[in-house]
Design brief:
The chain is built from eight helices and ten strands. The chain has 247 residues and is α/β, with parallel strands linked by helices.
Length: 247
């Protein structure tokens, strides 16, 4: 039986706006097992972004507990959370969040600096990752010299720099055309199918969410329904067949 890698147990997040308390999460329960591909969906205001912050160790709950690989992270300091994020979780963002003054290989190497790897190790790993996503000939290009799809591939390579247990993708296709977005989803499916990575996808796009094994629908800060992704097997088979991106 696969072990639980992330568990949210009756998690509340309440924001204070002056004298007013605004609950974004209202007792959220969510369990994700090692090697799963899970999508989190919901309308604006449903709590998806806040749940992503909880799952990604970017914030702590007002009430309730969050367990990452069996360890309760609910009351950790920001420094402790940063260390866990660096080792356990790789992030892919809608806005790419690349540093514009750095080349592709420098962007990918950046997370490894904070894990005390050597320059030689960083260069070797960054080169391998960029070649894996089909950007072997773009290593010395800066973000402004690349297309949106290429920048997202750099972001995916960067998310894998420290070989994380979990890849958390926040609207990874949101700034891409549909064809490029599909290729990004194919690659995430490939990571899941061939590398056994746990993939957590936060999206508002039903088409994108259908590539996951399981879809958790949020409303008013709680899970209101759970469904299977209809296109998961088909998407993953396509992703495995075409392991590298087509330019």
């Amino acid at each position: 039986m696969k072990k639980t890698i992330i568990k949210l147990d009756n998690v509340w997040k309440i924001y204070k706006m002056g004298d007013v308390e605004v609950p974004a999460l209202r007792g959220l329960n969510l369990e994700i097992k090692e090697g799963e591909f899970v999508a989190i969906m919901g309308p604006s205001g449903s709590g998806k972004s806040t749940s992503m912050n909880m799952v990604g160790c970017l914030d702590v709950p007002t009430k309730g507990n969050i367990y990452l690989d069996g360890k309760n992270i609910s009351h950790m300091t920001e420094s402790e959370l940063a260390q866990i994020r660096g080792r356990k979780i790789g992030f892919i963002f809608q806005q790419f969040n690349l540093i514009q003054t750095l080349t592709a290989i420098e962007n990918v190497a950046l997370p490894m600096i904070f894990q005390n790897t050597t320059t030689e190790q960083r260069t070797k790993k960054s080169t391998e990752l960029l070649e894996m996503v089909g950007l072997g000939d773009r290593m010395n290009h800066k973000p402004s010299e690349m297309s949106g799809g290429q920048q997202q591939r750099v972001a995916i390579a960067r998310s894998l720099a420290n070989d994380p247990d979990v890849v958390l993708a926040d609207e990874p296709t949101g700034n891409l055309d549909s064809k490029t977005g599909d290729s990004v989803m194919d690659f995430l499916c490939n990571l899941h199918a061939t590398k056994g990575k746990t993939i957590i996808l936060v999206t508002h796009d039903e088409h994108v969410a259908q590539s996951a094994e399981r879809i958790e629908y949020l409303k008013d800060g709680i899970v209101v329904s759970t469904k299977k992704g209809k296109n998961h097997t088909k998407s993953c088979l396509r992703g495995v067949k075409d392991e590298k991106y087509k330019r």
